[in-house]
Design brief:
193 residues; globular; 30% strand
Amino acid sequence: MPDTIVQPMTGERIIFRQRASQTGGALLLADNFVAPRGAIKPHIHPHMEESFEILLGPITFRVDGVEMTYGTGDTVVVPRGAVHEWWNPVDTEEAGATMAFRPALDMETFFETWFGLAADGKLDARGRPAILQAAVMLHDFRREMALPGAEGRVLRLVAPVLAPLGRLRGYRSRYERYSGQEVADAALVEEVL
């Protein structure tokens, strides 16, 4: 598994510092760098807290509708279930933060798959995969990631129906070419919950 992954569409780069397998599933720690004016779209982590230590600022966050800009050295905590997004508000330099996910669940595989699909040209111009690929991922990573609002509610309803069809068509939430050989970490993740 590579320690650095890149999302070429957004200019995002993640460097894994501590993986779930190294922390007994309690923590995923990674540095996330975003290109000038790069943005992470609104999303929710239903079963994990995410915190950020700003390495290179400023970074602007919107958490449950409250927008604030933070500088290098600041810490931001996003409680589980909070709708949040963040972006680099400057035109000239990348921004970066150390992200900590507690518990780790399978967030690193989500990142590896999402970034891998982008690198392989499997996302559309809006940065979205084919509907069946999305259904498989949203269903399999439902503890790690959800979309807010009406779109998220609809996707949560249809993903369990479309995911089996997606699997029959060959779509997966985890691919060996992005995440390496599968290891038996599922028990660790379950223990943390």
